[in-house]
Amino acid sequence: MGVIYLAPKVALMRLSGIIFLIENVSIVDISITQYLNQGVDTINTLIKWPGGKSGEIDKIVPHIPRFKRYVEPFFGGGALFFYLNPQKAVINDISSSLMEYYRLIKAQDKQLQELLLCYNNSFSNLYSVCSANYSDLLKMYTDLKNGKINADGIKTQLRLFVDSIADMANSSFSEKLLLDEKAFTDRLVKMSADKMQRTVKNEQKAPFSDEDLKNNLLTGFTSGYYMYFRDVFNDLHLKRIESPSEQYRTANFCFIREYCYGSMFRYNSKGEFNIPYGGMSYNSKNFRAKIDHMFSKDIKDIFSSTDIYCSDFEDFFNDASLTSDDFMFLDPPYDTDFSDYEGRDFTQADQERLAHSLKKTPAQFVLVIKNTDFIYSLYKENFTILSFDNKYTYNVRSRNERKVEHLIITNSPVKV
């Protein structure tokens, strides 16, 4: 007997292992394959990724058919994969950094674990040491605010401060993560000085509470920590320096993904990743809990039966040897003017290639994508198209092809 998946906000009653619907709304009952029969636990995602579909899972699940193997060619954060917790899977993404990360997680690599813990401990330790010496920072800030020292003077005092806490802040850290201690110090000084100067200007508009002032000034140091390792990320990405190891490169990638603002991707004209630090709320992140999750039994088990690829989606379709027993979930980059994906363009020609490939695939699939006239034209003749907003799912054709935010496109029969 398969599990019955229902639309959100539907009341359920279980009798003798059978789920009954108790609601007078139209829903879709879809059986999932045998491994979900007993209610396999879902798993939290591992890494922050833009455009993830965690919030849309309840819209997607009702349209999943029976399958023997789960396939995902644009994996990203893998929200649906971790939610379904499949017994057998094959995943792919064009991002070499991302798939290198998942390969090391599959291997439960101890060196990667050690480096991630070093990031967590050193970041937390820097914050704690600066917090413990906050009275010194407050005096510097007060002198700057009252005009007793200028911009150059505050940088000089902050450099002396950073030098004075170096032994406490950098213990068991510099030899494992720091590639250039002077560059690290320079970043801490620059970002903390900039933060102090901006805070002076902001307080001219409205005074901060003591707590907010402290959080702002300490964020100068945590953002400096982040910015140094963002510099390292770009140097590695653009091959300006050699990585000590693939584990070092992957740990750096993981830290940047976790602490960059909004998990965004954005690159400048030089090809440099330029998303800033997430801000004050990121100072107290529980990164340790996420690292422990990466190296847990649940993660080891789910990846033990998962094959990992890193290639263009068309090559992946060929390499994965898709069959009618496969279920494929696709969450490709959107058709927008800004379709940059880790420094790469995903063009309308790529969207056309994808649509053409899906017309030929033997696998059953569900594709979720933002609706545009171009995307709709690619799929309207060959597939079932539904659309959804934040409240409900409905058939496009039954609503006079009303324009909505997202489309669900599938080659499997659906009922609405």
In short:
By secondary structure, the chain is α/β, with parallel strands linked by helices. The chain has 14 helices and 14 strands. The strands form 4 sheets. It has an 8-stranded mixed sheet, sandwiched between helices.
For this entry, give a set of tags.
416 residues, alpha/beta, eight-stranded mixed β-sheet, two-stranded antiparallel sheet, 13% strand, disordered N terminus
Backbone CA Rg: 25 Å
Strand content range: 5-15%
Number of helices: 14
Mean pLDDT: 86
Shape: elongated
What's the total number of strands?
A: 14
Distance separating the two termini = 22 Å
Description:
With 416 residues, the chain is α/β, with parallel strands linked by helices. It is built from 14 helices and 14 strands. A hairpin with a 2-residue loop joins strand 9 and strand 10. The radius of gyration is 25 Å and the shape is elongated.
Topology:
Elements: E1 4-5, E2 11-15, E3 18-22, E4 30-31, H1 57-60, E5 69-72, H2 79-84, E6 89-92, H3 96-106, H4 110-132, H5 134-145, H6 151-170, H7 181-205, H8 210-237, H9 246-259, H10 287-294, H11 297-304, E7 306-309, H12 313-319, E8 326-330, E9 340-341, E10 344-345, H13 348-360, E11 364-370, H14 373-379, E12 384-388, E13 393-395, E14 406-410
Helix pairs in contact: 3-9, 4-6, 4-8, 4-9, 5-6, 6-7, 7-8, 8-9, 13-14
